[in-house]
Amino acid sequence: VRVGEPTDAEFDEDEVRFALTSEAGLNDGLAFPFVLAALALSATTATGWSAAWIGHWAWYDVLTRIAIGTGIGAILGRLLGWLFFRARSKALRLSEHSEGFVALAATFASYGLTELVHGYGFLAVFATAVSIRTAERAHGYHRVMHSFMDQIERLLTAIILFLVGGFVAQGGLTALTWQGAVLALLLLL
Fold this sequence. Notes:
Elements: H1 14-30, H2 32-43, H3 53-85, H4 101-116, H5 121-135, H6 141-169, H7 178-188
Helix pairs in contact: 1-5, 2-3, 3-4, 3-5, 4-5, 4-6
């Protein structure tokens, strides 16, 4: 679900889209412990499976790292929300400068800080974005950040497509069999 540019309308249909996108982001962020568990299980097939790791996984990977990610994200989002919209000094009030790069900096800062203390960075970025939006829902600066991030998304999509094209042009699919191609299509479709 793509979310359009924020508007000033009180009953904007993008509020529903934003809620759906937020729910999808939260699902993605909360999936990390289970993806890591699946990777750990697949790695133990050669050495033999043991249930001894489940307690540590539940405590550390599920509870602790999720708490760290959401906590740092919420705190950083509140701090950035205050800096964006409520700082006493106009020089500190980042929304007055209409710089889109601040959204990218907030993403990197949230992700990096959280990963540094062994939390889930993706979940922290989600919590930071929600906290910033909650700080001031109707401010025009949300349009600036949305527009900038939309441009970044398009640029990254073009880069990825270029890299995939280079991979194919260099013979990256030479080992692909027709069975592998059918499996790929089934997985995609």
